[in-house]
Amino acid sequence: MTLHQALQQAAAQGLARLDAQLLLLHLLGRPGTDRGWLIAHDDTMLAPPLRETFSALCRRRADGEPLAYLLGEKEFFGLRLQVDPRVLVPRPDTETLVEWALELLQHRLAPRVIDLGTGSGAIALAIRQARADAVVEAVDRSAGALEVAAANAHALGLAVDLRQASWLEGAQGPYELIVSNPPYVAAGDPHLADLRHEPVSALVAGADGLDDLRAIVQAAPALLAPGGWLLLEHGWHQAQAVRGLLTAAGLVDTASRRDLAGIERCSGACRLELG
Ligand code: GLN
């Protein structure tokens, strides 16, 4: 079977052309940027064992497994992160949160930052990469997630202090920034069927999806430096509720930002400056 035929078979299995090309390149040990090579060499023969492996990968993709798990990596904010089913796949929407975080840190030297529920380490590592002077902590309740985050920090050569904890438990403030992309999907949300391959502990937060957001907003103000910010990602219909939680917690300058799809995807607020 040629590479061309393998790709045709993948299309017949229901795969998008790009997904099939990326899986095939991965199998051949080539970078995803080599799609031109694939087209130029589409009469190359694919050995039977590789053919079997490719077809198995295609079946898993057709069954809804995220491409990132099959490739073992995902790009986030210009960083190549290792991912596996122990962590949520980093979403481009979350780059909105990182951009906002970096703006807020712009005029602060050596800011102390903590990322809650870091998963693959995406947010913490993106901040640390952009701000070498930042002192970044990242916590997760899941030991497996911390292993993935540690591997990413090591591979990228970025110093982030990793610790196993639930939200702000054991944290020593004050922080200039507390940031989190916590679970925020409501239990029973039909959308969860599409996310079935990802860790449910990273996705679901009680009947209304706000349980973890509430816990974080409650604990954060006491650990923020004066003028420090709490930034949170949340669901498409939760912006108003989260702004309400932030204001009720005594924080000020409450605002929301839209993701790439134009949806209010993160909200934040700041602890009042002294004086
Ligand atoms: N953004 C994810 C989704 O709904 C959910 C991530 C989360 O709960 N933090 O696809």
Features:
275 residues; alpha/beta; Rossmann fold; seven-stranded mixed sheet; two-stranded antiparallel ribbon; 10 helices; binds glutamine
Mind explaining what this structure looks like?
The protein is of the alpha/beta class and 275 residues long. The chain has two domains: 3-63, no CATH class; 77-270, Rossmann fold (3-Layer(aba) Sandwich). The protein has ten helices and nine strands. The protein has helices at residues 3-12, 17-27, 35-40, 48-62, 67-71, 95-105, 122-130, 143-156, 211-219, 239-248; strands at residues 73-76, 79-82, 112-116, 135-140, 161-164, 175-180, 224-233, 252-258, 264-270. The strands form two sheets. It has a seven-stranded mixed β-sheet, sandwiched between helices. Strand 4, helix 8 and strand 5 (161-164) form a beta-alpha-beta unit. The protein is elongated, with a radius of gyration of 21 Å. The model has no long low-confidence stretch (mean pLDDT 96). Bound molecules: glutamine. The site of glutamine has 8 residues, from loops.
- Give me the side-by-side strand order of the main sheet: 5-4-3-6-7-9-8
Radius of gyration: 21 Å
Number of helices: 10
- Name the ligand types: glutamine
Question: In the CATH hierarchy, what is the class of the largest domain?
Answer: Alpha Beta
* Fourth CATH level, the homologous superfamily of the largest domain: Vaccinia Virus protein VP39
β-strand amount: 15-25%
Major beta-sheet overview: 7 strands, mixed
The parts where pLDDT drops under 50 for at least 5 residues are none
Distance between the termini: 74 Å
Number of DSSP strand runs: 9
Mean pLDDT: 96
